[in-house]
Structure prediction request, 274 residues.
Amino acid sequence: MGTPTERKSRSSGDRLLMALALFTIERPQWTVEAAAEQLSVSPQTAYRYFKQLTGTGLITPVAGAGYTLGPAIIQMERQIQATDPMLIASRTVLVDLIQHAVEGSTAILCRLFHDRVMCMHQVMSRGPQEPVSYERGRLMPLYRGATAKIILAHLPTRTLKALFAHDAEEIAAAGLGESFDEFRRALAGLKRAGICITHGEVDPGRTGIGAPIFDRDGAVLGSLSLALPSARADEALIGRIASLVALGAREVERIMSDGPRTSELSPARVKIVR
Prediction:
């Protein structure tokens, strides 16, 4: 539980994080007064939060008495690019993977983030590209698309129960089941297959193929996926790419564990249960 001083410190830290979380793409600027109202605290308290966040460079003042995210965020982004194990391990794999895809495809690395998934990195093939919703740093729902569903399928049962209790209507709308038993059975099928294939669930005209990425303890970390132009994604191509995506996910895990080595993805080296 900690000492009273430690509990007070944790509580203060939580409130600072809540203040920082106010800054979103939808609302990138906040005044002290608006933040105080949103957080249900006094303007004096909100000002104290903002002063602390400004001192660390996490937010910075702008014209009109407002604040926005500060330069420390850019520094953290650079550190993530240089040190994140899954991101580092995936870069060469994504580049290799995209070589086997048709023009207009996008290879994507995503990470589980609370009850959503976040794009960490993407590599595009040659040729004209239709828009892809999975942009770096953008949070996406867990219930639509191969990239997210294959992560969802490998979450612990207790987590799935909590998600269903909170998002039953959204889960039903996504065709994943009207009851928790139906939801669990739908995900069990994806888990057995080891890969998820969807058509147009996130972006029209895109076929998604996703495979999970696990840590050393077998917990799902994220997913590796390919978004193909549906007009060119026949059954033979989907089957070949599915094998490569699954192999690529295993290679990311191996690199995270053992370090990089010279390798090339080959459909003959992996078998997918479909």
Q: What stands out?
A: Strands lie at 30-31, 59-62, 66-69, 106-113, 116-124, 139-141, 196-199, 206-214, 220-229.
